[in-house]
Design a protein that fits this description.
Number of helices: 6
Largest sheet: 18 strands, mixed
Shape: globular
Structural class: alpha+beta
């Protein structure tokens, strides 16, 4: 089975988030085999591209080393680039639709002289969930002080996959985050919500060298991911948070950048665009670039 490795949300090799893509596995490949292969790859996600079953161009299955995901951002963007590179997506095409666990997800395509140059995936409209009210206990569980947290909600949001969003006062505090899984589990239990991956972010521009809107980290030790260098599935909800709580204006929300992965020495630039009308969010998009760094054959 041939596969490719892409670095996603970057155009620089060895930055961004790694992804393994299997563009043409056997049609009858069983789910347990895909899961074992994803564990062998040991990236945050591995994708398998299969024939469509409904209203899409292809069916895509996304696996972490431990479980299957219904939707994820960097696998969608990276697989789009892979399918363009191998000719499944014809040059010049404007849109391609993936069948995912949450339903059909369209991706808008931008082309340059050397092929696909940028891809935007449309995510589901946001749903807002549980809030963490005990800020002191939460701060202690993630290695911070209560004063390090911005006076805005610590809230679960989903645009297909739910994450907990934590606004932090400074980049230095974001870099200090260190999760005590047991202590955080107790906070979740008292709140009455399931354990969630945690997305920390700050609008602090101290030391900023680029045009990023926020500086961010995503940690999910409860799912076997100590840290993720780029989390597209969390970036749509992040943009919705920024707009809902006035951290950006509706005009600014149309073009935002989350700088993630710096602490891992794999900087990633995730583009976010949130459209709204009369205070209601009407469209959520996450976009970026990807670069192929390897191709190989898995012997099974």
């Amino acid at each position: 089975m041939r596969y490719f490795i892409y670095d996603v949300f970057t155009d620089t090799p060895f930055e961004g988030n790694q992804l393994a893509v299997y563009p043409d596995p056997p049609r009858d490949i069983p789910v347990p085999r895909m899961q074992r292969i994803a564990a062998e790859m040991n990236f945050s996600e591995t994708t398998f591209v299969l024939p469509p079953e409904g209203r899409g161009d292809v069916r895509m299955r996304i696996f972490t080393p431990g479980n299957e995901l219904p939707l994820a951002g960097h696998p969608t963007i990276g697989t789009t680039f892979a399918l363009a590179d191998v000719g499944v997506i014809a040059r010049g095409r404007d849109e391609f639709v993936f069948e995912l666990g949450v339903g059909p997800i369209p991706v808008s395509l931008q082309w340059g002289e050397n092929g696909l140059s940028f891809a935007w995936m449309t995510q589901l409209l946001p749903s807002f969930g549980a809030r963490i009210e005990d800020r002191t206990a939460f701060a202690g569980a993630v290695g911070l002080q209560a004063a390090d947290l911005v006076d805005l909600p610590i809230e679960a949001i989903s645009c297909g996959v739910e994450f907990l969003f934590v606004p932090v006062a400074s980049r230095a505090a974001v870099d200090r985050v260190a999760i005590d899984r047991r202590a955080l589990g107790r906070v979740y239990e008292r709140t009455g919500c399931a354990e969630l991956a945690v997305f920390f972010f700050t609008a602090d521009r101290t030391g900023a060298a680029g045009d990023e809107t926020v500086y961010s980290r995503m940690l999910a030790p409860m799912f076997g991911i100590s840290e993720d260098p780029a989390t597209g599935g969390a970036s749509g909800p992040l943009g919705c948070y920024l707009l809902r709580y006035g951290m950006v204006t509706p005009e600014q929300a149309l073009s935002m950048v989350s700088l993630q992965g710096v602490a891992m020495k794999r900087p990633s630039r995730i583009h976010i665009s949130i459209e709204s009308r009369d205070g209601a969010i009407t469209r959520v998009r996450v976009g970026g670039k990807a670069v192929r760094v390897a191709e190989a054959t898995l012997l099974v």
